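Running co-folding for 2-acetamido-2-deoxy-beta-D-glucopyranose.
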Amino acid sequence: MALTSLPRFFIIFTLLPLITHSIPFVVFHGVADSCTKKGVKHFTELLSNWSNTQGYCIEIGNGVWDSWFMPFSEQTEIACEKVKSMSELRQGYNIVGLSQGNMVGRGVLEFCDGAPPVKNFISVAGPHAGEASIPFCGTGVICIILDGLVKLAIYSKRLQEHLAPSNYIKIPTDLDGYREGCTFLPKLNNEFEKNATYKERFSSLEKLVLIMFSGGKAFSQAEIVESESLYNFYCKPLFFSGTVLSRRTEGDDDSVLVPKETSWFGYFPDGAWDPILPAQETRLYTEDWIGLRTLNEAGKVEFVNVTGGHLDITDDDMKKYMVPYLVDEDAPENPTLLESNSRGQPSSTSSGAMGFVRKLIGQQDLQLNVIRHP
Ligand SMILES: *[C@@H]1O[C@H](CO)[C@@H](O)[C@H](O)[C@H]1NC(C)=O
Ligand SMILES: *[C@@H]1O[C@H](CO)[C@@H](O)[C@H](O)[C@H]1NC(C)=O
Ligand SMILES: *[C@@H]1O[C@H](CO)[C@@H](O)[C@H](O)[C@H]1NC(C)=O
C-alpha cells in the first residue's frame, strides 16, 4: 500500500515547483476606489491574463471610504498583515501601485517585518516625493489649493489622523510644518530620521518601474464646471468653511499629481515652488535616502513617460511597461500575451480609446462622472 502510493507522491512533488513557479502580483488601488469596482477588477484581470500570472487586488478596510480617511500607518499595517497571510505570495511577489496605492505598496515594502520579498514594483502615477494638492479636489481642471492648504493646517493632528492624502502632502514652503506634522511620507522617504532597514528593503527590488503621465486630452469647459461642482461637494465639507484658493493647472498633464514629476521622485526644491527638480537633483536621490540612486545606478529603475492624464493608461502602454515585469522570465513563451499583442489595439489618441481606458483603470467616481459629459 505504502509502496504503490510512493511514486505518485513523488511525481506530485517534483511537478509542484514548476506549477507554482510563476510569481503573482498584487494591486493597491488609488484614493476613492475599491477592489470591487469594475475598473480595478478589470485592470487586475487584464494584467493577469496578459502576463499569465495570478493577480490579486488587496483591499484595505472598506475601500473607498478608508482610502480617503484611514491614515497610512494603519492602511499599511492592514496591507502588511494581508500580504503575510496569503500563502500564494510566500515565494515572493510583484507590486502594482495605482496612484495613492503606491504609498501603501511602498509602506508594505519598507515597513512590513517578516513579509515575503517584493521582486518588481510597478508604480503608476505614484506621489512618491510628495503631492502639493488634495487629489481630485483639483482633478487638474480646477485648482491647486496651495495657499488654502497651508491656512487649513494640513499638518494638524486632526487632519493627519482623518484625511489620508494629508499624509503625503508636502508643501515646499512649509517644510517645518511637514517635518513636525506629516506622519507618513517623511518616514517612507527616510527624509529626516533615517532607518537603514527601509533603505535596504527598497534597494532590494529587482526592478522599479516609475510611470509618469504627461499630456493627454485637454478638458472642455463643461468638464471644468462639473469638476468644480464635484469639488465643492466632496472636498469643501472636509475643510469646513476655509478659504480655498483655486488655481487651475494645465489641462493636459497629470491632472491629479502636483507636480506630475513626483511619479519619478522629482519635486519642488525646498522652500520654493520652482523649478521642479528632476529626481536626480533632489537630496532624496543624491544623498540616497532610500536607495533610489543605488537602484538606478544598478540599472534597475525604468523612468517611463506615457501620454495621458492621471491613470489614463492605454492597453499598449500596459503591455509595454507593465506586463513584461510581471511575466515570469523563466516561464515558456506566453501564448495569451502573444495573441493579445497581435490584435489591433485602440489608438491612444482617439477619444473613444481614452474614455475606455479611463474606466478600465478604475477611475475614481469623480473622473467617471467627468467622462459622461464629453
Ligand atoms: C481573462 O481571461 C479569462 C479566461 O480566458 C476571461 O474569461 C476573462 O474575460 C479575461 N478578462 C479580461 C478582462 O479580459
Ligand atoms: C528600523 O526599522 C526596523 C524595521 O521596521 C525596526 O525593527 C527598527 O527598530 C527600526 N530602527 C530604528 C532605529 O528605528
Ligand atoms: C514626456 O513626454 C511628453 C510628451 O511626449 C514630453 O513633452 C515631455 O518632455 C516628456 N518628459 C520627459 C521628462 O521626458
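Result summary
The mean pLDDT is 76.
The CA atoms of residues 203 and 291 lie 5 Å apart.
Job closed.
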